[in-house]
Amino acid sequence: MPPDKKGRKATDNRPSPQKVKAILDILDLHYPDARCSLQFNNPLELLIATILSAQCTDVRVNQVAPVLFKKYPTAGAYAEAPIEQLEEDIRSTGFFRNKARNIKACCGILHERFGGEVPADLDVLVTLPGIGRKTANVVLGNAFQIPGIVVDTHVARVSARLGLTSHKDPDKIEQDLVTIIPKEKWTVFSHQLIQLGRDLCRARKPMTSDCPLRKHCTYALEHSGRDE
Ligand code: SF4
Q1: Domain 17-30+149-221 has CATH 1.10.1020.10
Q2: Looking at per-residue confidence, does 9 or 124 come out higher?
Q3: What global pTM score does this model have?
Q4: How confident is the model at residue 225, as a pLDDT?
Q5: Ligand 1 pocket, mutate which of 211, 215, 218, 222 (most atoms under 8 A from CB)
Q6: Which mutation among 208, 209, 215 tests ligand 1's pocket best, with the greatest number of atoms within 8 A of CB?
Q7: What is the pLDDT of residues 112-138, one digit of tens each?
Q8: Which residues, judged by CB distance below 6 Å to any ligand atom, belong to the binding site of ligand 1?
Q9: Which of 67, 109, 172, 173 has the largest count of CB atoms under 10 Å?
Q10: 17-30+149-221 and 43-143 share one CATH topology?
Q11: Active-site residue set
């Protein structure tokens, strides 16, 4: 297909730059302070907190984290901990056996190969046990200020409803979003969509009539009069 006057192919269903800008402006207006809700003091703490946050609320993680971080101040401390003890320490975050195994294995590698430091490199981070692109981007964006789009369940759902992606696979959603969102906004945009997903754009019943984005939202336009 030949490109149209704006250089976009006829099969290209990406949102227009005007729509993206309108959405970003509204997000900035309504969620100017959106930020990571996990509490941490250094990259290692954020890495551990992010692993714990899988299938668990950030509130719960923040309750468990202070005691955990005090008990295990270094990657080496996690690596040397008896697995049963580590499981017990994180039990209340759910899926504790899996999480403990990943934390111990991941920290073992950090201790042995990286001097106990968390590498600020996406390609390296995703080779560590239990670390996918989502966790890696959380750590890079919030502990190192290296922009990254975090595709969690909220970002996946809200970006699809807004018409910013037509994919369901998180990696493909991330690819779509990085092509339309300015790089310097990747991290804050992720937090804004997570906040919107928690506040209004809930999985079961999005509160479309209260949403400041409704005029620019594909879902709202398609479901006009049906969800309210
Ligand atoms: S208008 Fe409705 S569906 Fe669209 S982003 Fe807002 S809450 Fe979600």
Answers
A1: no
A2: 124
A3: 0.90
A4: 63
A5: 211
A6: 208
A7: 999 999 999 999 999 999 999 999 999
A8: 158, 161-162, 200-201, 206-208, 211, 213-214, 217, 219-220
A9: 173
A10: no
A11: 134, 152
Q: Distance, CA 140 to ligand 1 centroid (Å)?
A: 28
How is the chain split into domains, by residue range? Answer: 17-30+149-221, 43-143
The CATH class, in words, for 43-143 is mainly alpha
pLDDT digits (tens, 9 = 90+) for 55-70: 999 999 999 999 999 9
CA distance 58 to 65: 10
Per-residue pLDDT of 78-90, as tens digits, reads: 999 999 999 999 9
Type of residue at 136: A
For the chain, how many residues are written? 228
Centre of ligand 1 from the C-alpha of residue 217, in Å: 6
Decide if 19 contacts 6 (C-beta within 8 A): no
Report d(CA 217, CA 23) in Å as an integer.
Answer: 9
CA of 211 to the centre of ligand 1 (A): 6
User: Which residue in 150, 148, 119, 147 sits closest to 134, CA to CA?
Assistant: 150
